Amino acid sequence: MSIHPSASRLLAASQALSLPRQTHRAGRLALLKDAALLRGRAHEACGRARCSFALWLAGAMHGPVVWVSAPQENTHLNPDGISDFADPARFLWITPSRQDDILWVMEEALRCGGAPLVVAELSSPPAITPVRRLHLAAAAGATAAPDGLPPLGLLLTPGDGGGQGIESRWSMQPAHQERHRCWQLERLRARAQPPRQWKVTQPAPRAPLVEATADGDSQLMAHAAASNRAVALPRLRDPSAAPLHP
């Protein structure tokens, strides 16, 4: 199978209209002060809020997002939940007819360099050989990328993950408190960073996730003061709670 030519044109046009963000310095996508993902590599996310983690990455980047998953009847991400993190119009959904083609499509999308973020939903952790191919494809994607930066690959796996040869593994679990949107983020493994845990919160829709304080309130108010606007706490709406993704 192959990606339709119109999809390639869409990726090129969308990327040409976007501008790289400063969080991409030195080929890393910075999420928190001590949490960053190396571009040009394949990473893994597990946990019940793994889709929220992927959307967090999408919100921190510009340009199209390629999301690859197996076709499943009457199951999909909630666009309303996506919009709390990023514009749903940025997403290009690809559903290969065979489960075995998911990693192949992801590899080709990374190699073309048209999308800075490529996400693949898997039913089980991948073996080391396809992961190595993803690393090579992501590194090669810098040649075709308009901003010269390699794309980032993210594998969403069930349970506790366990992909072999991945650059880093992250776990994200919902930990909402009353009207505060909160998650428990954990770096389970990384090549150059130790394991660590954070409690993160989103002060407002489309706002970047920030590390929460003990009670969560002071961090929200600090963010509001920095942006010089009032924060309206959003309704609890976690994309990972949609019927497709527990």
Descriptive labels:
single chain, 246 residues, alpha/beta, Rossmann fold, 9-stranded mixed beta sheet, two-stranded antiparallel sheet, 6 helices, disordered C terminus
Topology:
Elements: H1 5-16, E1 28-32, E2 35-38, E3 42-46, H2 50-59, E4 65-68, H3 79-82, E5 91-94, H4 102-112, E6 117-121, H5 128-140, E7 152-156, E8 168-174, E9 182-190, E10 196-201, E11 210-211, H6 217-227
Parallel strand pairs: 3-7, 3-8, 4-5, 4-6, 6-7
Antiparallel strand pairs: 1-2, 8-9, 9-10, 10-11
Helix pairs in contact: 4-5
Description:
The protein is α/β, with parallel strands linked by helices and 246 residues long. It has a single domain, classed as Rossmann fold. 25% of the residues lie in helices and 23% in strands. It contains six helices and eleven strands. The strands form two sheets. It has a nine-stranded mixed β-sheet with strand order 5-4-6-7-3-8-9-10-11, with helices on both faces. Helix 4 packs parallel to helix 5. The longest helix is centred in the middle third of the chain and has 13 residues, at 128-140. The protein is globular and about 40 Å long. Mean pLDDT is 81; it is low at 12-26, 216-237 and 240-246.
Radius of gyration computed on alpha carbons: 17 Å
Report helical residue fraction: 10-25%
* Number of DSSP strand runs: 11
Shape: globular
Termini separation comes to 29 Å
Sketch the major β-sheet.
Answer: 9 strands, mixed
Number of self-contained structural domains: 1
CATH architecture: 3-Layer(aba) Sandwich
The overall pLDDT, averaged over residues, is 81
- Within CATH, the superfamily carries the name P-loop containing nucleotide triphosphate hydrolases
Low-confidence stretches: 12-26, 216-237, 240-246
Strand order of the largest sheet: 5-4-6-7-3-8-9-10-11
N-to-C order of helices and strands: HEEEHEHEHEHEEEEEH
Q: What structural class do helix, strand and pairing data support?
A: alpha/beta
